[in-house]
User: Which sequence fits this backbone?
């Protein structure tokens, strides 16, 4: 039986190499900074909601951001079924709230939950339509604004960015641990 795989369509922004979901997210954060991406997305949302105004950024920069974020969403869709792979058994009392970002404590503990929750509420196509719609309305001067709810998908997307960054941090920390510690850490999961 052939396994259905999703095309991340990353050839437009990071070359022709095929990626797994996790490696695509790693490449995404090599090309983009988390804070800068959140600011870009916030700026796009701001100008999409305003009438008769156009985003001051160059259209090619916005298009590049749109393409890379679209691939990111597709990779997140693939990660939604990874249960408890990046689960942290206990949260430290001395954790830094800045590392948590927009995530709740449960989402910080299990960042794949963010993707499950987002794609349970919205289909992949709905996220792509949202992204296309806000980019479209931010790049032009129109008399109208998006008709659908754009705030909820935006909040899910911000959380997905935070969760992906956290997943990659945990993967990198896991790779840096000696083999015996990795085995012990995996056995301690609930």
Assistant:
């Amino acid at each position: 039986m052939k396994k259905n795989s999703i095309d991340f369509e990353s050839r437009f922004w990071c070359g022709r190499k095929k990626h797994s979901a996790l490696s695509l997210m790693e490449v995404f954060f090599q090309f983009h900074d988390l804070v800068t991406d959140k600011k870009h997305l916030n700026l796009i949302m701001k100008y999409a909601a305003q009438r008769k105004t156009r985003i001051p950024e160059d259209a090619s920069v916005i298009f590049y951001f749109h393409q890379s974020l679209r691939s990111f969403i597709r990779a997140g869709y693939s990660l939604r079924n990874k249960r408890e792979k990046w689960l942290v058994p206990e949260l430290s009392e001395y954790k830094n709230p800045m590392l948590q970002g927009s995530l709740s404590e449960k989402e910080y503990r299990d960042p794949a939950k963010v993707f499950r929750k987002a794609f349970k509420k919205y289909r992949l196509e709905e996220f792509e339509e949202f992204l296309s719609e806000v980019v479209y309305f931010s790049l032009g001067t129109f008399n109208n604004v998006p008709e659908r709810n754009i705030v909820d998908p935006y909040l899910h997307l911000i959380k997905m960015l935070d969760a992906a960054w956290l997943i990659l941090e945990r993967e990198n920390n896991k790779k840096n641990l000696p083999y015996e510690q990795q085995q012990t850490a995996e056995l301690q999961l609930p």
Observations:
- The two ends are 32 Å apart (CA to CA).
- The CA atoms of residues 17 and 84 lie 28 Å apart.
- Residues 19-91+98-187 form one domain.
